[in-house]
């Protein structure tokens, strides 16, 4: 993996007039992974994931159907104020508008996650992605904020703390609905129930601020390559410029156009395992734009402590539906994802569950 110092472009991508070879992806019809019978040309099709009103009396059923069909959905009336969404987007824009040299001073280190840099999935791809990001995964981000905003760090730390608190509450609410759609509760996840009873957080959250600058040749570039999240779920706020795409077997790539005040929820690998494969972890990517830059803020609600064993929920398995995945600690799964990337779920799948 190249050192952050060698990444001469990520902080200044928007100023480039031509697409460097290192950022040029050979995107073909095969890369789009559209069904062979599809009449749609390369790109995304004209449909989108459901928008669900969280105040709807039938919200559990609606979310359950969307999860099983798409592995993703959008939410309105979620309780997050528009002011807070505007504030976190403004924080992100202020950060990414800084000179490249200043952003690199807050670069994430080999020993830590928090800080500025390229997407963490970059080592798995030959070409670079047309984006830059900043990760907040622990309290160390405060030091970065002090470096970036010597006089305003208190203001920006306050925005971040409020955003994390609100996202944690929303993620817990969504998890209850999704579990309810499967006929189970948090108590049926042994490790999660123990954590809740002890007053410990069920999931550990991280924030990823993403910036996709204007690109001279967007059809040959990739903002963020196709992947699934390792998380329970991810809640995404995107600015008013589109770029997010999710993959569905029946449809190919589907663009999720931004809707003011609406958040996107992607299901991750951890919940896919917990659900014994009933709910997919959605494959998604980000495309870039020729005339407008794009900001997105992802709240990645991850798993428990590293030594906790992850297995399908016992109530969702039985003689008719045996367990599809073997037990593995959360730390082991994350290490496996880091080593084999999109083959991690296959690596822990029980090939013949009946035996």
From TrEMBL:
Cofactor (UniProt): L-ascorbate
GO molecular function annotations of the record: gibberellin 3-beta-dioxygenase activity; metal ion binding
Positions of the Fe2OG dioxygenase domain: 203-303
InterPro entries, alphabetized: DIOX_N (IPR026992), IPNS-like_FE2OG_OXY (IPR044861), Iron_ascorbate_oxido_reductase (IPR050231), Oxoglu/Fe-dep_dioxygenase_dom (IPR005123)
GO biological process: gibberellin biosynthetic process
The enzyme's E.C. designation: 1.14.11.15
Family statement: Belongs to the iron/ascorbate-dependent oxidoreductase family. GA3OX subfamily.
Name under which the protein is recorded: gibberellin 3beta-dioxygenase
């Amino acid at each position: 993996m190249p050192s952050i110092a060698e990444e001469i472009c990520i902080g200044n991508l928007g100023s480039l007039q031509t697409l460097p070879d290192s950022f040029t992806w050979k995107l073909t019809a095969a890369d789009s992974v559209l069904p062979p019978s599809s009449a749609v040309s390369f790109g995304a099709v004209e449909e989108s994931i459901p928008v669900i009103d969280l105040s709807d009396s039938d919200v559990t059923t609606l979310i359950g159907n969307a999860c099983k069909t798409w592995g993703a959905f959008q939410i309105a009336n979620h309780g997050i104020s528009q002011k807070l969404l505007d504030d976190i987007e403004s924080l992100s824009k202020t950060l990414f508008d800084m000179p490249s040299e200043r952003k690199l001073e807050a670069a994430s280190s080999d020993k830590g996650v928090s800080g500025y840099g390229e997407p963490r999935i970059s080592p798995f791809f030959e070409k670079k992605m047309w984006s830059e990001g900043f990760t907040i995964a622990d309290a160390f981000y405060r030091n970065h904020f002090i470096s970036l905003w010597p006089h305003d760090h208190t203001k920006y730390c306050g925005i971040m703390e409020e955003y994390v608190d609100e996202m944690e509450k929303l993620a817990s609410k969504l998890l209850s609905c999704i579990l309810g759609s499967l006929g189970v509760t948090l108590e049926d996840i042994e490790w999660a129930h123990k954590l809740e009873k002890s007053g410990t957080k069920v999931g550990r959250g991280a924030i990823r601020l993403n910036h996709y600058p204007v690109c001279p040749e967007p059809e040959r570039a990739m903002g963020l390559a196709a992947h699934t999240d390792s998380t329970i779920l991810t809640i995404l706020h995107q600015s008013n410029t589109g770029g997010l795409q999710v993959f569905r077997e029946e449809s190919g790539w589907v663009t999720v156009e931004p809707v003011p005040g609406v958040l996107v929820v992607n299901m991750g690998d951890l919940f896919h395992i917990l659900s014994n494969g009933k709910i997919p972890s959605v494959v998604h990517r980000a495309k870039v734009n020729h005339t407008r830059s794009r900001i997105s803020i992802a709240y990645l609600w991850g798993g428990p402590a590293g030594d906790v064993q992850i297995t399908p929920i016992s109530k969702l398995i039985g003689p008719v539906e045996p367990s599809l995945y073997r037990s593995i600690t959360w730390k082991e799964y994350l290490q496996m994802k880091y080593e084999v990337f999109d083959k991690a779920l296959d690596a822990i799948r029980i090939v013949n569950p009946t035996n």
